[in-house]
Amino acid sequence: MLLINCPYCGERDQSEFTNGGEAHVARPKDPDQVNDREWSEYVFVRANPKGIYYERWVHTHGCKKWFNAIRDTSTDEILKIYKMGETPPPIKRFKNTLRSPSGEPDVGSGNFTVKKP
Amino acid sequence: MSEHKIYFKFDGKTYGGNEGDTIAAALLRNNVKLVGRSFKYHRPRGIYTCGIEEPNALVQIINEHNEPNVRATVKKIYEGMVVKSQNRWPSLKRDLGSINNILSPIFSAGFYYKTFMGPKGFWKNVYEPLIRRTAGLGKPPREFKSKSIHLHHNVDIVIVGGGFSGLLAAKKLAATNYDVLLIEREDSLGGILKNAKKIESINDQDPSDWIEKTERLIQNSSNIKILKNTLVTTYNFNDHLIAVEDKSVGKPQDNEKPELVLHKIRTKRTILANGHIERFISFRNNDLPGVMLAASFEKYIQRYGVVPEESPVIFTNNSSTFSLVKSLVGLGHKPKAYVDVRDQKNIEKETVELLTNYNIPLYANSEIEGCEGKNNISEVSIRAKKNKIIKIKTSMLCVSGGFNPDIHLFTQSKGLLEWDETLLAFKPEKTFQNTITLGSVSGNFSYEKLVGEINKKLDFLEGINDLEIKLNINGPKRFQIKELWETKRAKKSLWSKSFIDLQNDVTTKDLKQAVLEGFNRIEHLKRFTTNSMGTDQGKISSINALGIVSRILKKKCFRSWNNHLQTTIRTVKFLSHRWKKYL
Ligand SMILES: [Zn+2]
After folding, report:
1. Second label for B477, Cα 20 to 30 Å away, from A113, B80, B336, B571?
2. Is the Cβ pair B414, A13 closer than 8 Å?
3. A10 touching B (Cβ < 8 Å)
């Protein structure tokens, strides 16, 4: 279970929080003007990388406030937490080492027959 | 030592045991060796181990809501407890399902999956009802009631395991500013010091005196809290541990009081000192009641004061069985034979000397070919030098196939493992969290080097003196082992089987068949044969299966398997259904 540092309350157990998916997905300015494909991309398509991921969390069983977090999905390490409305730190500030905890290769899911593209 | 006897029922008959006995210890005290029938072939099964790794001795506790699959080697007895054996009909000694054993060619590896393949309608009308009736372990519980509470902890250091290394680490941390939690699975501290005669004295004192003194020191130190009867089941991210404390050990259930406490612990550092688990060796009929792991046999003698058999045969491929001989001769008993896979010149001189002094026949460069018996072993066959088969009558056989560091929690913490060629075992290589491993779990099988290891690995602590200790060690000081996973069988029959997973009735032949059918990846092989998929999760068998398969595939060593094993050893499988719902 992760330990998450709520910018308003401090470090709390993950069980107090709810993950809100990818952060900084901009809603189209004028939904009536976008086609179905663009709209569905906004609604459904997420980056889901193995590595550094910008995501939203809400302190559901606490202050109930939303905030952003940058997490390395291969290690579950939270690299940075910042409030809503703050400028997100650029990705190149973080070393994306992809050091997966179980020693898997960068691509694939531990299945060694998967080759790099 | 006249202790107050505790009476309980097993399959309708009343037996007496001592306070603190597990069901298994009490049954062995009464010379009961047959305790269950196996999952698939309904073969007679006995008590194989003396702890949490038990594959065979699973029983049903009738007066606790019919609780099934309770390990007889863990559950402690109390007055009026009602215990039943499982998976047999009409009785344990005469079981009709054992016909499966002779029909075994039908039930070979992948049998279950092959039933899906047709003919149409067969699954629903024939296979499913048949499998549902004969397979499975105990019967479901009734009117289940249990109370439990949750506790949260925030500490600086957690020590998992109150054995020798855990006690030493706690001693070093006593009276410091670190907030420490020491967690022990058994009802008393001491671990190996209480289970075996490995160490004669510590600082010129009897090990039990040293344990008592150390425990008092720890208890008087306000920064350390000890939790006993508590099993750490989970090691999550950010050093978050989950442990379950059993409040009703050796007591009947009280539905008014909490029976279990779930501890949720957040710590800054985790010290794993949770020891090792012994392995077996596969041979013909290695599942018969009367076959037991050597260290478990010694644990029954040392911890429970029960001698399961006064003159067993000992079968080993390593140096650890010295202490078992020492324990037996210390009580005036004598093993019938000592069978060592290693050449005479590689067997430690202490062992040879001890065997010679007590006139115990040593068969070096030999192995157990198999054993005979109906509901218990009656005879073992030794393949001595030059392929000569020697038969010896005995009712018990103690087996030691080496040791696996208990790396479950370490792999859950996402640490990386490496294969150690000298120990023939996986040991921690690189930590992922703030984890420290001490003692046998770290692959250190030498008591002499233990204090040095602790001083070195805990040197981050400020202002604490190095530990010093004077040890008098019994027998060989260095652990040595020769690779052997399965012995060659001389005799073939449908009844005779060489098992790899005792709980799921997987034979070494099933492994070979799975490889033949193309399932040579370890995860596929596991799924296809159901090896290590029982409630014991292959604690004593999974590394053996890797050993046998890598031999079949002629892989030189385990290095190639290394990465395949790294599937995290799953937590939930350790948990009985009782507290699964809280996680
Ligand atoms: Zn908050």
Report:
1. B336
2. no
3. no
Cβ atoms of B568 and B537 closer than 8 Å: no
A1/B416 touch (CB, cutoff 8 Å), yes or no: no
Are B148-277+405-466 and B282-401+480-494 equal in CATH topology?
Answer: yes
Q: Is the pLDDT of residue B101 over 80?
A: no
Q: Kindly report the CATH number assigned to the domain that includes residue A16.
A: 3.30.2270.10
Asked whether the beta carbons of B86 and B58 are under 8 A apart, the reply is yes
Q: Calculate the dihedral angle through the C-alpha atoms of B213, B217, B219, B223, rounding to the nearest 10 degrees.
A: -160
Q: Report the residue from B237, B238, B568 with minimal CB separation from A102.
A: B568
Give the pLDDT band of residue B1 (cuts 50, 70, 90): very low
Partner residue opposite B414 with nearest CB, options A3, A101, A112: A101
pLDDT per position as a tens digit, B119-148: 666 666 666 666 655 555 677 887 777 788
What token pair was written down for B546? Answer: 């890797």
Residue at A42 is within a domain: yes
A112 near B CB under 8 A:
yes
Q: Does A103 fall in a domain?
A: no
pTM of the model: 0.88
Is it true that domain B5-134 has CATH number 3.10.20.440? Answer: yes
Q: What three-state secondary structure class fits B547?
A: helix
Reduced to 3 states, what is the DSSP secondary structure of residue A44? helix
- CA gap B43, B251 in Å, rounded: 32
CA distances from A108 to A46, A116, A117, B523 (A): 18, 8, 10, 16
Give residue B570's pLDDT band: very low, low, confident or very high (50, 70, 90): very low
Domain of A68?
Answer: 3-93
pLDDT in tens, B148-188: 899 999 999 999 999 999 999 999 999 999 999 999 999 99
Give the CATH fold of the B148-277+405-466 domain: FAD/NAD(P)-binding domain (3.50.50)
Place of tokens 């009897």: B206
Residue B158: what pLDDT?
98
Q: Is A114 inside a domain boundary?
A: no
**In this predicted structure, what is the pLDDT of residue B145?**
72
Is the model's pLDDT at B264 over the cut of 50?
yes
Residue A111 lies in a domain: no
Which of the pair, B91 or B563, is modelled with greater confidence?
A: B91
Q: Look at A103 and B568 and tell me if their CB atoms are within 8 Å.
A: no
Residue for token digits 């080097």? Answer: B449
Domain boundaries, chain B: 5-134, 148-277+405-466, 282-401+480-494, 498-583
Distance CA B365, CA B386 (A): 9
Task: Give the contacts of A83 (CB within 8 A, at least 6 positions apart).
Answer: A7, A67, A68
Task: Please check the confidence at residue A43 and state whether its pLDDT lies above 80.
Answer: yes
Class in CATH terms, B498-583: mainly alpha
Mutate to test the interface with A, among B264, B414, B418 (most CBs of A within 10 A): B414
Report whether pLDDT(A71) > 80. Answer: yes
Mean predicted confidence (pLDDT) in B384-393: 94
Model confidence at B562, pLDDT cuts 50, 70, 90, reads: very low
Spelled out in words, what is the top-level CATH class assigned to the domain B282-401+480-494?
A: alpha beta
Say if the Cβ atoms of A13 and B240 lie within 8 Å: yes
Q: How many domains in chain A?
A: 1
Cis amide bond preceding B119, omega within 30 = yes
